[in-house]
User: Which sequence fits this backbone?
């Protein structure tokens, strides 16, 4: 194991790619905590309403993530061959699919917000507040789709700093506007959850505009003309969809599993869904490290496979898994020490605080397993083009193990929220076992680049 940490070139590349992504996600999660604290001043119904409404955004984001994950697989391998025309064509396909999906989600959220909210909760106060938030924030979905597509391709071509800087600007604006519009500061009206929605749409608009201006002014490889974006003849469309559709299907099927979890949490009680949302803020803050590692892993492995260096790709996977496991243990311990300081900031009921405390302890204990699953599935299997097996692990396990255990725990055994969450963690153990088996078999490596 000692020789792993002597590879200076490997770690230099990994940190060069991972750190900007970590910083971007850290900023996103940190400001998410600040935003949550602002909304938390409005009470449990406000926290729950925004949390439930954002489940629709969560579903949309997972669709975008599925599409852009497939896009990243091809982009990383084409970048290893320095094939710019195909990279631009892949970006065009990503934009087409993402924007279409965003329009569908936006229309449904704008036209039927109360019905969507009613899927998750029967609390009318939560439904009423959440519906107002959802109708406004739905206008940001298309903007997010465009930004995600360009940012993903930029990162896969090893330009990780530009998406980070643009995102930090937008997130900072979002927090400032939230401070003004939620609580009524800077002479602005106190609009509560409606103010939070307006702030989100405004910051997303700025983010999209700023990113596109910089990309095309600098004439980066992704600054494609419309004709190049639509030039699908340079691609093997069949191979693209054969690889990408399992990723999209994974995110959709998996996301409905996560949605089912949130329905279960909400049906247990408003305190339960509020506790999950509060715990999630710290969990996301810690998890940014492994999101960065997973993305760096995907870029590095994809580049090596595209260049035909399969043994190096496999070695990279081993190194990042070992490094990720060590890091996850350390951050799990840090997470435990941060629980009490975090909970002291929320003005919610004693029951909500107690539930959140227990959920966070479970999250911290299972952090190493969850982190390795992220690196394995996104950073290794998907980047190697092994998307169908990744679908089997990610989507199959959540519905065959996680969802049944959640339903049994909540509605048959009538367990409190933290015990239901612990049962769900069984899913993560099974996923890791299947993932490691596949990794060491080396059957996950597939070269997706095709001759011109």
Assistant:
């Amino acid at each position: 194991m000692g020789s792993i940490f002597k590879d200076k070139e490997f770690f230099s590349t990994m940190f060069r790619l991972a750190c900007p992504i970590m910083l971007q996600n850290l900023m996103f999660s940190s400001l998410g905590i600040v935003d949550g604290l602002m909304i938390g001043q409005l009470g449990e119904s406000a926290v729950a309403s925004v949390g439930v409404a954002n489940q629709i955004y969560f579903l949309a984001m997972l669709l975008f993530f599925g599409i852009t994950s497939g896009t990243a697989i091809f982009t990383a391998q084409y970048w290893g061959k320095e094939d710019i025309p195909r990279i631009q064509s892949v970006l065009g396909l990503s934009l087409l699919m993402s924007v279409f999906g965003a329009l569908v989600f936006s229309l449904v959220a704008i036209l039927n917000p109360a019905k969507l909210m009613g899927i998750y909760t029967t609390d009318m106060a939560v439904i009423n507040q959440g519906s107002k938030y959802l109708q406004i924030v739905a206008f940001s979905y298309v903007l997010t789709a465009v930004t995600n597509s360009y940012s993903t391709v930029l990162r896969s071509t090893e330009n990780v700093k530009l998406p980070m800087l643009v995102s930090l600007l937008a997130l900072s604006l979002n927090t400032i506007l939230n401070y003004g519009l939620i609580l009524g500061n800077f002479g602005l009206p106190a609009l509560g959850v409606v103010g939070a929605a307006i702030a989100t749409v405004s910051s997303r608009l700025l983010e999209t505009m700023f990113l596109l201006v910089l990309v095309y002014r600098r004439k980066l490889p992704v600054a494609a003309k419309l004709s190049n974006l639509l030039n699908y003849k340079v691609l093997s469309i069949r191979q693209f969809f054969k690889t990408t559709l399992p990723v999209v299907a994974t995110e959709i099927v998996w996301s409905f599993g996560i949605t089912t979890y949130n329905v279960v949490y909400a049906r247990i009680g408003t305190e339960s869904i509020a506790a999950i949302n509060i715990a999630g803020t710290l969990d996301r803050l810690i998890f940014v490290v492994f999101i960065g590692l997973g993305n760096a892993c995907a870029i590095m492995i994809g580049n090596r496979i595209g260049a035909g260096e399969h043994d190096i790709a496999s070695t990279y996977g081993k190194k990042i898994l070992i490094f990720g496991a060590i890091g996850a243990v350390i951050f799990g311990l840090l997470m435990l020490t941060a629980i009490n300081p975090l909970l002291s900031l929320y003005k919610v009921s004693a029951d909500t605080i107690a539930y959140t405390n227990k959920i966070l302890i479970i999250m911290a204990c299972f952090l190493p397993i969850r982190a390795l699953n992220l690196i394995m599935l996104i950073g290794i299997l998907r980047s190697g083009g092994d998307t169908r097996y990744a679908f089997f692990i990610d989507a199959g396990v959540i519905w065959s193990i996680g969802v049944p255990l959640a339903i049994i725990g909540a509605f048959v055994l009538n367990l409190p929220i933290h015990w239901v969450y612990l049962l769900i963690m069984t899913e993560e153990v099974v996923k890791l076992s299947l993932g490691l088996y596949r990794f060491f078999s080396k059957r996950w490596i597939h070269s997706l680049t095709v001759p011109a």
User: Anything to note?
Assistant: The CA atoms of residues 69 and 149 lie 10 Å apart. The two ends are 41 Å apart (CA to CA).
